[in-house]
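Handoff note, outgoing to incoming analyst
You'll be picking up this chain. Sequence as last confirmed:
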Amino acid sequence: MILLDTHALIWFITNDSKLSPAANQLIAKSSKVLVSTATLWEIAIKLSIGKLDMGGTFDDLFPTHLDDNNFTLLPMTLAHLSHVGRLPFHHRDPFDRLLIAQSMTENMPIISKDAHFDAYSVTRLW
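Most recent structure output, in case you need it:
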């Protein structure tokens, strides 16, 4: 079971070479890949303001990409949000902080290029 950072999800579904071969293989071979609702929220915002172009609208792309890749949606829970409130501020991005809290709370590794995650007690795979 692994959790995807936003860029890892985008790069995987768009077959972008920025995704490391090791990360690509981990995603492709994992028995369960989780995508946080925070990730989809971030993508929806970036698509709507034109900061991200994935060749379609959010409604065109999701849940199709999740279904096609057999990814499981990880909802935000009170336990995750509580954990966010206890995290030190090594990293200030609110979406990443929630992903870090989810990774810690659920005790699962996260696929991310972001080395800031290493300041927390998470297993970051890349």
